[in-house]
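Data availability excerpt. The first of two example chains:
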Amino acid sequence: MSEDYPENLIEFEQRFSTEEQCRQYLFRLRWPQGFVCPRCEGQEAWQNCRQLWVCCHCDYHASLTAGTLFQDTHKPLRLWFRAMWSVTSQKQGASALGVQRVLGLGSYTTAWSWLHKLRRAMVRHGRDRLSGDVEVDETYVGGLSEGKRGRGSEGKALVVIAAQQDGKKIGRIRLARIHDATAESLEGFIQQALMPGTVVHTDGWDGYNGLEKLGYHHQVIVLRGKAKSAAAEVFPRVHLVASQLKRWLLGTHQGAVGASHLAYYLDEFTFRFNRRTSRSRGKLFYRLMEQAVALEPVQFKELCGGQNSPQQVGVT
């Protein structure tokens, strides 16, 4: 299936006004070359009265939504499509309360769980790692007070940022929450996010000392003893990303992000940032739809860490 998406809200409303239109679009995304049986890979099937595809070779009954983000949903696909359009068409994203109001959902919990499922779909498995010249540094997010500065701030979550250099601009980024600033945590992130051979620019923190042995070109700028503003001048890209991340968490989500779910908000921020120059919001909708079809189903209790509601884990 070639990239096929609505360019604006009017086109979106025209193309996805019925459940059947949504099902047809989802079918083309899931089986771009035509139906393929999940069991035997047969390519001939017929559709029964329950809208299941019945394989002509092995009689397997395949649901269009099974094995995707939409599995077991009791809501119309039209609502899901509207939620995804709302999330991708707004530059800063949407909160659960906003989605609840826009879609007219009776339950805040439904809106909250949908957004968390969509955030999981924003990470494409097997995505390319960063390369070239990349700045890496950490920052703390969360908490009502500034707390003490530097590595070890209490009551906050530690986030490591990698920002690719694109001339004087920022290329792609990667973010991750880490438990501490030890070499084990930092090196693990870098190996996942950066290609070997990448030139990695960091400060003089000991946690980065082993990068040369891992196959990276390590450029160190020691900041100890310099003014606090020096870090932002030496590593302007990671500091700009950190600043925008904090503003986004406070602005869109009012800072009400539970520590156990922070990683998924980081995924959303990364998804948005890396596509910030896209001229078509519809293309973001298409990319999210593509990845939603490839996402394994996520149960509600998985989203809540085994609890029964987002409120029980302090998430708003």
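And the second chain:
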Amino acid sequence: MKNLRELDPIGLEGCFIAGGAVLSRVTKAEVVDWDIYPKTKEAALDICLTLVDNGCFVLNITDRAITFKSNYLIADNGERQTLQVMTFDVFPTAQDIFDFFDFTVCMGAYDCDTKDYTFEESFWPDVASKTLRFNPKTKYPLASLIRLGKYRKKGYEIGKGETAKVALAVASKGLPTSWEELESQLGGVYGKSIKVLTEDEGFTIDRAYEVLSDLEFNVTYSDEGDFTWVTDEELKVILSIEPLVVYGGVQEAPNDPLATTLGSTSWVVEEGDLVPFACDDNVFDLPNTRVIEKPLSECPVKFIKAYKHLKKDSNGSYVGAVYNGNHNGVTYKPFEKTSYDKDPYLFSYVKKPKVSVNTFVSEVRIPVEDLVSQDSRKYTSKSIIVGEITGG
């Protein structure tokens, strides 16, 4: 199809762009999001690094895809465009992609290497007649059921037989048994919303009905406040190019030889399980991550980065500001190690706490060898090295 313009917005290699972007190009509509299908796992990493190098930020990570938002690709309505790198499989050919797709009007793919388009046999007649034909082999039929509304708004029609096929495909998957399974079935922004709405709740079908009733299925990603930086090393872990190493319950930070952060109490270190992965202030569940567990004594990371409240006493010295524990009278000096050998031990916060009036906060480093325990809110340690003190 040489009469169609090239589709690649950045200059990617080793992948296809497929689905809605191709349909938009064919129907001469604006492309507002890009679904990228890597041909190999190594290509997936290169694609993610290319997106980061071109001003894209990681917005969401699921077991299906890594979602980016661009600072430079702007739609006609002024919103930043979204790019999704599909990571649940690799796609050497266009047909490998089509096998996962739900409707034939999505079955178009642009090869970023050859600059050629490939279309499923029914693509053109179904697009011309605005008819939805369902692929029952699709992996996420529940998401397809929701997508029907999207296509109807665009003028597409689906026959009773095809609707019944969608319903049968949903039934064949069986009822979800966890929030994670429901999130995976819905995928994308819908799954992200479910995760927010059901945090720390047990799963029941009745509660799932309530959540789905409250869920806005026209949710869009925010342009502000959702971005996070992800390093090259972190992307390797996320894509399972390199294993995640856990030392005695403390996650290694491969991009920082001095410090690391933890973001969860539930460290699961068996291969194939979901593993919480801290990146800035966000914690993502890494799917199918290869994990290596090693003793804490072998950890190359010597310090854990955290934060501590401080206050000034009458002498102008900095002392602990948390009013429960014998360590409140301990004096801290910037860039010096403060030790404590009595219970309760010194503790500091996982995330930077809010600073109230007349209170100070410092980024601190906890020697790994002195770490006693940790949870989702704080670390407990026998010693702390206080850094620069701010606030007050």
